[in-house]
Amino acid sequence: IAKEVAKLLEMKAELGADEGKHKFVLKTPKGTRDFGPKEMAIRERAFRAIIACFKRHGAEVIDTPVFELKETLTGKYGEDSKLIYDLKDQGGELLSLRYDLTVPFARYLAMNKITNIKRYHIAKVYRRDNPAMTRGRYREFYQCDFDIAGQFDPMIPDAECLKIVHEILSDLQLGDFVIKVNDRRILDGMFAVCGVPDSKFRTICSSVDKLDKVPWEEVRSEMVGEKGLSPEAADHIGEYVQLHGGLDLIERLLRDPKLSQNKLAREGLGDMKLLFEYLRLFGITGKISFDLSLARGLDYYTGVIFEAVLLQQDPEHGEEPLSVGSVAGGGRYDGLVGMFDPKGRKVPCVGVSIGIERIFSILEQRLEAAEEKIRTTETQVLVASAQKKLLEERLKLISELWDAGIKAEILYKKNPKLLNQLQYCEDTGIPLVAIVGEQELKDGVVKLRIVATREEVNVRRESLVEEIRIRTSQC
Amino acid sequence: IAKEVAKLLEMKAELGADEGKHKFVLKTPKGTRDFGPKEMAIRERAFRAIIACFKRHGAEVIDTPVFELKETLTGKYGEDSKLIYDLKDQGGELLSLRYDLTVPFARYLAMNKITNIKRYHIAKVYRRDNPAMTRGRYREFYQCDFDIAGQFDPMIPDAECLKIVHEILSDLQLGDFVIKVNDRRILDGMFAVCGVPDSKFRTICSSVDKLDKVPWEEVRSEMVGEKGLSPEAADHIGEYVQLHGGLDLIERLLRDPKLSQNKLAREGLGDMKLLFEYLRLFGITGKISFDLSLARGLDYYTGVIFEAVLLQQDPEHGEEPLSVGSVAGGGRYDGLVGMFDPKGRKVPCVGVSIGIERIFSILEQRLEAAEEKIRTTETQVLVASAQKKLLEERLKLISELWDAGIKAEILYKKNPKLLNQLQYCEDTGIPLVAIVGEQELKDGVVKLRIVATREEVNVRRESLVEEIRIRTSQC
Known about the structure:
Chains A, B: Belongs to the class-II aminoacyl-tRNA synthetase family. The structure is a homodimer of 475-residue chains. Chain A is α+β, with helices and mostly antiparallel strands.
C-alpha cells in the first residue's frame, strides 16, 4: 500500500507543481496570520500580564513539541478529533500537530511519572476549524494554560484556577465578564434522571455544548433527530439547562427530588457548594455563574468545568448583557493521565486555558480607537553625524555604547543627512541623538540632543553612557 | 487520484490503528524533546541574553505561522529540501512546516511590500534530519534570527550582524570561539578560475560545505566521483579551500593572478576588506577568520556568509584548537525576497541565526557540573498555618497577597502539617513563610518566618505586603 500511495502522491505532486507555476499565491495558510511589530507589541503586553499572574500563583513552566505521535491524540477529543492536523507519512512515525496543551501535558506527566506539579505552558495549538478571523478564531492560535496536577483536598486547586481567570481578565481590563461554572458529574446525573441512556451521555453533552451558539430549539432537534433521543428526555433536559444562578440554585438542586437521588449529581452539587464557599473567600463570587447549560466539548473532563465570556459593553436598559465570546475555559480531568500510564495510574488534574486571540483582537481595537502610538523598539539613542566622512567615528562610538549595554542604532549610510537622522528618531520614537562632529571630536565631547524638546547639550565622552542611562531611565 | 489516495490512506490508517493497540508507545516524536521546568529555566536565561542583544541593536520583533504553503518553501533550500516536513493533504492547501525563519521572513516582506526593516524572530523550525540529540541536533529546534533588510551602503549591516554574534557568544560565556567568514562571490569566482562549469557551482558548493565534518579527501572524491568534476579542477579548489586568515590573506588574494581576474571574486574580496575595516572599528577582528572552506549549505546566499564555532577548551600545546560545533550562522541573501515579489523587486537582506540547542546543552552541562541549584518558580512566600481548621484564613490571606501582586502559594490540603509546609519551602526555595494561627488572628498579626535563618517575626497584617516586598526585593 505504502508504495502505491507514494506513487500516486508523486503523480499528484507533479500535477500540483505544474499548477503552482501558473498561479503563485503570496499568502499565509488559511486561518493563520503573521504578527508584525505592532501586533507583537500588543501580544507581548498581554503575555506579560498572563505570565505575571501564573508566576504569582507559583507555577513552573514547561514546553513540549509542536507535534505528538498521532496515537497520543487519538480518542481524547471526541467529535472534535476530525479537526486534528496530521503530518504526511514521509516514513517513520505518524505525527499530528497538537490540538491543545492539555493532552501533551498529560502525556508528559505519565512519561516522566510526575504525580505533583503546578505548571504553565504558553504555545500555539492547531485546529482545522472553519476560521472566523475577524472574531479571533484561527487555525493556529495561542493557548496559555495553567494546570495543577496532584492528589489534593477537594476544590482548593479548582478554586485557584477560577481566581486566576478572574485576576487575568480584570488585569487586562477587557470589560465586564462572567465565569460560567458547571460540573460534568452534575450534567451526567442530570442526563441520567432525564432518561438519557448511558451510551448517549457524551454525544448529548456535545449537543448541550452548542447552546452558547444556537438556540435551544435547534439543539433539541439535533438531540431528537440526529441523536435519537426521546422527545420527553430532551424536554426534560431543556428545563434544567436554562437554569443559572449562585449558591441559592445549588441548594435548590440539592433538594430537587429527582436530581438529589442521583449519586453523581449529589457529589457534583456538594463540591459545587464547597467551590462557591472558597470563591467567596477569594471575593469573586460576583462574576461567577453556576450554569447548567455549560457542557464543554472535550471528552476528557470529569468534574468541574468552566468558561469565561466577555459581556457586551452597553446592554439595553433592563436586558441581560449579551455574551460576546469565550476567552478562557477549563476544568477537571482526573482520568486523562491514567490513559497514558501503562498501569493506568491516575493523576487528578485541573486547569485553565486562556484563549489569547480574542483578547488580542479587543486590545488591538482599543489601541486603534485610542490612537495611542506604540513603540516597537526600545532604542535609547541614535548615533548620528552632522558632517560627511564620519562613518568610522559613528561606528566607534556605537560600538562603545553597545558594549556598555546602551540600546543604540545608526543609519546604514556612509554620509546620511542630519535631517534624515532626526526624522528617523521622530518616526520610531528614539528619544536621544548622540551627534559626533569634527569640533566635538576635538573637544572630547558628544552633542546629545533630546528629540522631544530639541534641546542640545555637550556631554564629555566618558560621561555619555551614564548621561544616556539617566535620561532614559523611565523608558 | 485524490480519491484513490484517500482510499489507500484510509486502509493504511486502519492497519496502523490496529498495530497501535498492541504496542502503545509513551514518547515524544523522534528527534524532539520536552523541556521540563529546569530546562526551561536554562532556556529562558539564554533567550534573555539573546533578546537583550537584539533589542540593544534596535530590532523589532515579528512572528509567522509554523507552517507555510508548500510552494513557498519550494526551490529555496537546494539539496536540503528533502528534509522538509509536509502536512498530510486533508483537503485544502498543501502545507509544510517551516525549515528556517529566513524564507518566511522573505515571504513576509514581499507580501507586505516592506523594503526596510530590522527585526528579530525567535521560533521553532523543523528538519527531518538524522537527529544526534546528545550533540544538540534535533528535528524540532529553536532559531533566534536577526535580519536587516533594505538598500544600504555596503557592509555596514553585515558588520553589525557579526558584532551581534560576537556580543551574544561573549555574553553567554560559552568559552573560546571563532567566527568564520567568506563570501559566495569569492567562492563562485574561485570555482570559475578552477574550471568548474557554471551549472555545477551550487552542487560543488554543497560539497565544500561538508569540509567542517569530513576530510578533504572525501569531499574531493564526492566532487570527482559523484558530481563529475575533473580531478584537476578539484585539486585546484583543494589548494584554495585550505586558506584562512585575516586582512593579509584578503590582500594576498586580491593580488592572486587568477582570482584577481575574476569580477565576482574581486567584488567579494573588496567587500571583505571593507568588512574587516568595520570589524576593526568594532574591536572584534581577533575572533574573525576569513576562511575559504566556508560554504554554507543553503541556496539563497548571495554575498557574505559566516558561521560561528565554539573551540575546544584546552587544546594540546601547540595544536590548533578543535572546533566543537557551529552555534550561529548567516549571510547575505539579496535575491530571496525578489523570488516572492510578483514583479521580482529585490530587497537586499543580511542576517544571522543563533542555534540555541547546542548552547542549551553547554549551559546544562555547566550548571550540572557547578551543582548550582536553579529555582524554577519565583514564589516569595508560602501561606501556612500551625493549627488545624485554618484553611479559610489561609485562603483569605493568600487572596489578599495575590491581589497586592505578591507571589504566594499554599498547600492544597485542609489541614497540612507545619513541618510539611516548611519542607515544601526548603524543597522549592521559597524564602518566606507567612504563618496564621489563632493567637496571631486575635492579635491582628501574621508570623513571618525567614526560611534560611529560621528567624520569626510578628508583622501587623496591614504591613505584611510591604514587609514581604522589602525582604524579597533582591529576588
